[in-house]
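Revision sheet: structure tokens.
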Amino acid sequence: MRKKIKYLNINYEFYGEGEDTLIFLHGWGQNIGMMKMLADKMMYNHKILIVDLPGHGLSDEPSFAWTLDDFVLMLKELIESLKLKDVVLIGHSFGGKISLLYASIYDVKKVVVFGSPYKQK
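Predicted:
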């Protein structure tokens, strides 16, 4: 599926069953496929949202270099447009950086990161 967020077409998959929504964010240079194998194992007990970050996979590339804050705002708009609440963010590498910054600003149920170095501003 694709949704226009911050003037870009953002590619994502949304599937599964359950009350919680797990949002999977891949690392730099990756795409949905990187997280799909893990997400698919959880789809029977959770809703799953996997996102191609802007400039990756089938999502449009921004016309200028985005900051980490731009990625967080894109994620916020996507979550709001899908009317999701109490999300669990699962991020690898750069996706983990986005998850950590997002959770420091907005409410989330949980954050799981792996391979995610983070240096505070």
